[in-house]
User: Fold these one by one.
Assistant:
Number 1:
Amino acid sequence: MTFSAIASALPRVAVTTIDGLPFPHLASGKVREIFDLGDALLLVATDRLSAFDVILPDGIPGKGAVLTQMSNWWFAQTAGLIANHLLPDQAGEFARRGITNRDLQLRSMVVRKLKPLAIECVARGYLIGSGWSSYQKTGEVCGNRLPTGLRQADRLPEPIFTPTTKAPKGQHDEPINDAQAAAIVGAALYEKVKATSLALYRLGHDRAKQAGMILADTKFEFGTDAAGNLILIDEVLTPDSSRYWPAAEYRADCSPPSYDKQFVRDHLVALKWNQQPPAPRLPAEVIARTQEKYLAALRNLLGP
Ligand SMILES: Nc1ncnc2c1ncn2[C@@H]1O[C@H](COP(=O)(O)OP(=O)(O)OP(=O)(O)O)[C@@H](O)[C@H]1O
Ligand SMILES: [Mg+2]
């Protein structure tokens, strides 16, 4: 689907709940609602926004559609590297299952039912965020020893893999090292997950660069099927799961502006909110500018 087709179909008001579907509801994530289609799952990305792992009372109109459509684009780009959870004919699946609402289609994926691995697979090419904090304290990021003298936002000599636990709702994911992550998923599978995550990061970084963005870091999720095959699941290389910077504004020694929720986070930090629920409402301007950011990232990748 083209960027303009997606952008012109976005709702004016944020869609933060998904009601009235005839399918059994399985689970609610911070952003997604998951329904049981029997032989498949329906993942619906709402317009909800979370910051510091708390869902904000305001959504960003159309954000869910942007996330789903961007993931679909990346699933196509990465299909040569790793199989993904999308059933091959999304339009056909929607038609067959009576999913006719246009807004719902744009924010939905019909996916294979898989067993998610119990780790979050983070790949980083730049020294920023929690990686930068850890490096300043220990010179390491999740057991990866790095050269001395690196500055905030510096590009790393090589991308690194920094997995975390998958924390239950309301808790924070904790960084773990190779040995801990291998103990959770099994050594052989872990090697594959690590190599695939790094290959996906490199591909994502190259494509994003062509689109005028730097992919600083990103988080993947993988699942396995009944035969034990490794499959890329969830969303992929979106501003919610990744840190993208405009290439033109990138420089080291600072925290560059990003396409993710940084704008909202900056607003919340300025309010000195204690990061416990309930979160404060967002001003209309913060909502509008955040929507612009998500759309800009999509336009950069898909073209106008
Ligand atoms: N193909 C799949 N099969 C099974 N589970 C999946 C599949 N794709 C994604 N999931 C799961 O669906 C959920 C997506 O929901 P969402 O992104 O809103 O959750 P979240 O807020 O990130 O929190 P959490 O991942 O802890 O539930 C994730 O738990 C993810 O692991
Ligand atoms: Mg998620």
Number 2:
Amino acid sequence: MSNFPESHPQLPIVTTLRAAGCVFAEDEARLLVADATNPEELAAMVARRAAGEPLEHVLGWAEFLGIRMTVDAGVFVPRRRTEFLVREAAALARPRAVVVDLCCGSGAVGAAIASVLDRPRVHAVDIDPAAVRCARRNLAGADGRVYSGDLYQPLPEALRGRVDVVVAIAPYVPTGAISMMPPEAREHEPRTALDGGADGLDVVRRVVAEAPDWLGPHGHLLLETSRRQVPGTLDAFARHGLVPRVVDLDGLHSSVVIGTGPG
Ligand SMILES: C[S@@+](CC[C@H](N)C(=O)[O-])C[C@H]1O[C@@H](n2cnc3c(N)ncnc32)[C@H](O)[C@@H]1O
């Protein structure tokens, strides 16, 4: 609901956003008007957006699987394509599953999984304190815990060999390709969220290498990656004894690689 009268002139906002290159200027203007609590705040929000900040950072939230997830400025914005990974993970998990969301960012993936599964226990990890703060808020209503640290390192030892599903959207952009990303990403999302090293697979390989220690019998590891990196990802899965399969969604440039541990 807008906080402004029906007659509030949105047109100048649309014009400003369009001039700044926002393709969905009308939709964005509507969201900004609805979220601002007074005209001064609205003007500041429009100025931030026109200067190139991601809409989600300006609003402070992103819609993900129909849920409003808090996304603070400086935290990776969850992508709608990742809803595909959430559905794949949900299809594999049993009731009361133990789920680990590695590289959780805002925690949107873990929180979305928690919203569709039957009483899962979600453990989420990120190395960036700003992301951890955000994830704690998004997972507050779930049976979940959020840890700060490097990949599996902060997880409780008791989870070793008992995790049903590990999901990870690790940084997977090759270092040399970051300069070609849209400015919204490369200027407003942290480098640690994007940079996957020379071939984009540095963090992915570490996630895969340690997964067998944490997965229970027939546990699953799900990774989102770019289609170009699927062969390298499959190679990592095979090296660590995970039986992989690849799931692509038409129209997306990313794939989900799912590895299942030996029984
Ligand atoms: C591409 S973002 C994905 C965030 C979230 N899963 C999502 O889809 O919105 C990658 C995240 O991995 C985190 N990260 C990078 N290296 C990490 C590491 N070694 N351990 C834990 N988290 C890491 C970054 O801080 C960032 O939040």
